[in-house]
Amino acid sequence: MSFNLVKNPWIKVVEKESGHETKVSLEEAFRNSQKYLCLSGDMKFQDLAVMRFMLAILTTVYTRFDADDNPYEWIELDDDMRFVRLVDEYDEDDLFDTWEKLYSQGHFSDAVVEYLYKNIDAFDMSGERPFYQVTREEYDSFATKPISTGKGTVSVRQINRRISESNNSPSLFSPRSAHKKDSFSMDELVRWIITYQNYTGTTDKTKINLKEKVSNSAGWLYKLSPVYADGDSLFETLLLNLVLVNQIDRENYVNQVPVWENDSFDGYVESIKRLVPPDNIAALYTTWSRLMHIEWEYDKPAIYVAGLPALSNTNAFIEPMTIWRNDKDDVTPAARSIKSSNVNKAMWRDFGMYINVDGKEDRKEPGIVAWLRELKENGCIDRGKLLSLDSVSVISDGNATSQAPAIEVFDDMNINASVFFDKGENRWPRRIEDAIATTQNVADDYIKMVKKVGLIRFHGDNRQAGSFSRKYGLVFYDGLNAPFKNWLSGLKDSDNRDEKLNEWKKLLLQTTLDNLNIFMKGATHSEIVGAIDESGNVRNIFTAVGLFKHKMYKELE
User: Fold this and answer.
1) C-alpha span between 182 and 158 (Å, rounded)
2) Cβ 315 vs Cβ 331: under 8 Å
3) Are the C-beta atoms of 147 and 304 separated by less than 8 Å?
4) H helices of 401-494, where?
5) Which class is domain 424-557?
6) How far apart are CA 331 and CA 340, in angstroms?
7) Which 3-state string (H, E, C) describes 450-474?
8) From CA 253, how far away is CA 233, in angstroms rounded?
9) Taking the CB of residue 221, how many other CB atoms lie within 10 A of it?
10) Region of residue 258 (left: phi > 0; alpha: psi -120 to 50; beta: else)
């Protein structure tokens, strides 16, 4: 099975000019990225995995070469364009200059494709060192069950996260009939292997040999709450997310080591065993959750996998694409759970998790946001540029023994760079957070009002009333998403803050009244008549709505 990612088409993209979907090779993707609108894989989270794989290549190249394809003066490289040593003092300004020149010229330089061809064997699916795989001998030396046992195999349907099933579990996303669930094209297999290493789950019985008992990795991306920048073309998207400066260690040059640059997989596995993430982005973006080996029989793959231990993501600030939450003395990715009430919570409602609103030292914002701020402050991007932040999460079924994908959640948020990074005394991020707090207060009161009515409808049954109010709460927030996102994207640094906040309050008021009208039209006879409470007062839908309106108007004064 001869298939090389550099030369054979496997990346799904949308052409800017025609709007048509097509498949391109790595070489085509990098040479013509400005001609493509975006990645267009089988699912949004697959696009994120593929994008990070492509970013690993770009980060490796442009931390060694400038935009004119010259090695930096302070670095020595070998004939394969790999790092040898520093020969002079590292200068991070050179990296910003490279980024800015790439942005201004609107395309990547030839060094990227040259690097791919220098390392072309690493991107072959069936070479001596097959792509994202180990050899049979290496697999047997690491795995608890060698290949000869026939144990440790996974089917195509388990690697294809669009199907996401084993022989015993149900399909969640599958568009295929049963007899075609293990069929594939090579381009499809490549995309899903990259994705599978990032979103794996924990069903595997075969592990690597370890003295200590540790859990199998579910996949690095699986445990994040990802956020990334979305541009007007594939080129701009890749470049905006191309973090060239190490934000953990600003003083020292950190060599980028994508997984294929490891001289020995013995060393790679040993580094994984330390249970800490890598110190460089290229390694992080290509981190494996499984050792994989494919045996081919008449174009049919027997896919052997052995679980690698899970890396700790606590205080793992090398990761730029996640929001964070404080957890006692540590900071961890704010991953969502299927059991939580915020599984479909819109990005704008968590605005303060995407940017440090008040500049507090104990608040950690996403690395990609910090990078975009640096680009703006260094004049690399226009201060009036409209930034699009996207988020895509895969949420597991909550079963610790499987962690099968259950839900894909996608959202976005657009905001002007000068607004997002406003530092003024009356700065926009603080005022936006105030607007969200007001919205939250109105929404909370609305949901409480609905629950009061629900208690009348369901004769005091708290469980049913709670379910009733949550349903209407979701509808309420859904109705706010588009108006708030439009309001947010329209803000300018020159706008009068108070006037714009009043504009949102008027929109909030109108949306709330519209929801109230719809809610009241569905009132039942028992809700209209109501009941007498312990104080002898009548409680019905009209008294509940009246009290809510009083609170709302006070909140929106």
Assistant:
1) 9
2) yes
3) yes
4) 417-420, 428-457, 462-489
5) mainly alpha
6) 19
7) HHHHHHHHCCCCHHHHHHHHHHHHH
8) 30
9) 26
10) beta
Phi (first) and psi of residue 74, to 5 degrees:
-95, 15
Distances (CA, A) of 269 to 259, 274, 286: 11, 9, 13
CB 432 within 8 A of CB 353: no
Going by the DSSP 8-state scheme, the letter that residue 71 receives in this structure is B
68: exposed, middle or buried (Cβ count in 10 Å: 0-12, 13-18, 19+): exposed
CA distances from 317 to 228, 312, 333, 366 (A): 15, 11, 10, 9
190-207 in b/e form (b: 16+ CB < 10 A) is: bbbbbbbbbbbbbbbebb
Residue 66, classed as helix, strand or coil, is coil
The token duo for 304 is: 């052997």
- Distance, in Å, from the CA atom of 554 to the CA atom of 557, rounded to the nearest integer, reads 5
Residue 207's SS3 state is strand
Which residues share a beta bridge with 392? 410
Given a contact cutoff of 8 angstroms between Cβ atoms, the answer to whether 442 and 512 are in contact is yes
Q: Whole-angstrom Cα distance, residue 237 to residue 215?
A: 35
pLDDT at 1: 63
pLDDT in tens, 138-149: 999 999 999 999
Domain boundaries defined on the chain = 11-307, 424-557
pLDDT of residue 171: 44
Q: Which residues of the chain have pLDDT under 50?
A: 166-172, 176-177, 179
pLDDT at residue number 172:
47
